[in-house]
Amino acid sequence: MSVREFLNNNSAVATIVAVVLLVMALGVIIWQNQGPQPRQLDVFYYDLNTQEVFVDDLSRVVPFDRGNGAYEFADGPRGSAVRAMIYTCGDPEEIKEGMTLAEIEAAGGFIAYLERFTPQMLERQARIDAGESISYEDYEVDYDSVWVSTPEGQTWVNQNSEAGTQVIQSGLQRCGNVIPKLCRP
User: Fold this and answer.
1) What ranges in the chain are assigned the alpha helix state H?
2) Which residues, in sequence order, are bridge partners of residue 158?
3) CA nearest to 150, candidates 168, 176, 175
4) Digits of tens for pLDDT over the chain (185 positions)?
5) Number of other CB atoms surrounding residue 96 within 10 Å
6) Beta bridge partners of 85
7) How many angstroms separate the CA atoms of 183 and 101, rounded?
8) How far apart (Å, rounded) are the C-alpha atoms in residues 185 and 166?
9) For residue 58, which phi and psi values (nearest 5 degrees)?
């Protein structure tokens, strides 16, 4: 008996097998097109008003308002939340969300420096968020778009300047001959 004869004599079985194969193929196509889901990368932030560390997504534009009022920066009031670069000479697992500066230091950690975007970068990001297209020249802002400060947050300097390098390096030299470990949530 040939395949054609079998299919003609058993059309119900042939239909069921074809439908099952079609559903399986469709399932494989859907499964392959899902791809990996974007993963949220959490980092530590520091609220200059409450002086506490908290965790949020790396993609946040700093400074931002987390509901604790504005902070008076030299360039005007803005949100009080900035990125915190927390290191330790000991166990990074000891650093937890909600800790104050004193609690971080008691656990063997320290905020080496804080980060925030420059006013130019904040203005560019606001234009992008509003749906405006930006020019190639606007991308030149990126190189010098981050300011750094000591944990007090009083003076902010460009991270690529000599003063910025000094803030970063002095913050990282607190472990003596031991290389400090970056703390992650």
Assistant:
1) 3-9, 11-34, 101-106, 119-129, 162-172
2) 147
3) 168
4) 676 777 677 777 667 766 666 777 666 677 767 766 556 789 999 999 999 999 999 989 999 999 999 999 998 999 999 999 999 998 999 999 999 999 999 999 999 999 999 988 888 888 888 888 877 776 666 667 899 999 988 899 999 999 999 999 988 888 888 889 999 99
5) 15
6) 113
7) 14
8) 26
9) -60, -25
In the block, tokens 């904040």 appear at 122
Structure tokens at 47: 């609220």
CA 147/CA 115 separation, integer angstroms: 6
Inter-residue contact 88 to 181 (CB < 8 Å): yes
Q: CA 134 to CA 35: how far, in whole Å?
A: 30
What pTM was computed for the model?
0.74
Q: Cα 87 to the chain's mean position, in Å?
A: 17
Which of 76, 44, 79, 74 lies closest to 61, judged by CA?
79
* Closest among 148, 146, 150 to 171, alpha carbons compared: 150
Return the structure tokens found at 17.
């097998």
As a whole number of angstroms, the distance between CA 59 and CA 33 comes to 25
| Cα 184 to Cα 173: distance, rounded to the nearest angstrom | 19
> How many Cα atoms occupy the beta-carbon half-sphere of 147 within 13 Å?
21
Q: How far apart are CA 35 and CA 63, in angstroms?
A: 33
